[in-house]
Amino acid sequence: MNKVLNFNNVEFKSSYGSLDQIPEAERIEIAFSGRSNVGKSTLINKIFNRKQLAKVSSKPGKTVTINFFSFENVYIVDLPGYGYAKVSKVEKSRWASLIDGYLNDRSRRLNLIFQLIDIRHAPSDDDLQMIDFMIENELPFVIVLTKADKLKPTARKLRMEAFKSEIPYYDEINIIPCSAQTGEGIDIIREIIEDVSDNL
Questions:
Q1: Alpha-carbon span 121 to 78, nearest angstrom
Q2: pTM of the predicted model as reported, rounded to 2 decimal places
Q3: For all residues of the chain together, what is the average pLDDT?
Q4: What are the CA-CA distances from residue 42 to residues 130, 157, 171, 181 (Å)?
Q5: pLDDT in tens, 128-140
Q6: Collapsed DSSP state (helix, strand, coil) of residue 171
């Protein structure tokens, strides 16, 4: 029987700007990944019924650290958004090394990654690189298609059909259309978090 989690029982733990700052894993971790401005912070706030748990900005590329949130018996990990063009090469390199270093650290107890993609657009090269990386390294992940409320039914149907050829191994991946505005998909994401937390 699944343990019922209190999604209000969450608090900010810490931000880390470099890998050597991150302490050893003490709980399982569930990470959120995606390009800049895909809606990671907004989604995290919606899942946990908070307005400012994860800082939301109108400017892409605002999350430049790995942010840890304590939730029940797990850590929710907000990874820096990738792919934002208007930052220096040095900063892009720092973000990339931070994300790569975290995902490649086999000592971490990373049980699931929510990979966010904007439903309105085809996956970017960075998105596809992330998907390939997770598949090759056998990291469990779910794709969340954000901003589902932004598309009208006909346009949404066309995008969902296009994803079948744009996302590798589409039929084998759990894909969730989601909207932080209407709440679509939020209960499904919470159920997945509960399932991961229950399998300790």
A1: 22
A2: 0.89
A3: 87
A4: 21, 24, 27, 9
A5: 999 999 999 999 9
A6: helix
Which residues are CB-neighbours of 44 under 8 A, at least 6 positions away?
A: 32, 53, 54, 69, 76, 78
CATH number, domain of 139, equals 3.40.50.300
Question: How are beta strands 66-71 and 10-16 bridged, if at all?
Answer: antiparallel
Q: In whole angstroms, what is the distance from residue 48 CA to residue 43 CA? A: 9
Distance CA 177, CA 189 (A): 10
The boundaries of the domain holding residue 82 are 10-198
Query: What would the 3-class secondary structure string for 63-82 be?
Result: CCCEEEEEECCEEEEECCCE
Is 131 part of a structural domain of the chain? yes
| Of 92 and 195, more confident | 195
Per the domain annotation, does 67 fall within a domain? yes
Identity of the residue numbered 63? T
Reported for 131-136, long-range contacts at CB under 8 A and 24+ positions apart, including other chains, are 131/167, 131/168, 132/168, 133/103, 135/168, 135/169
Domain count, the chain: 1
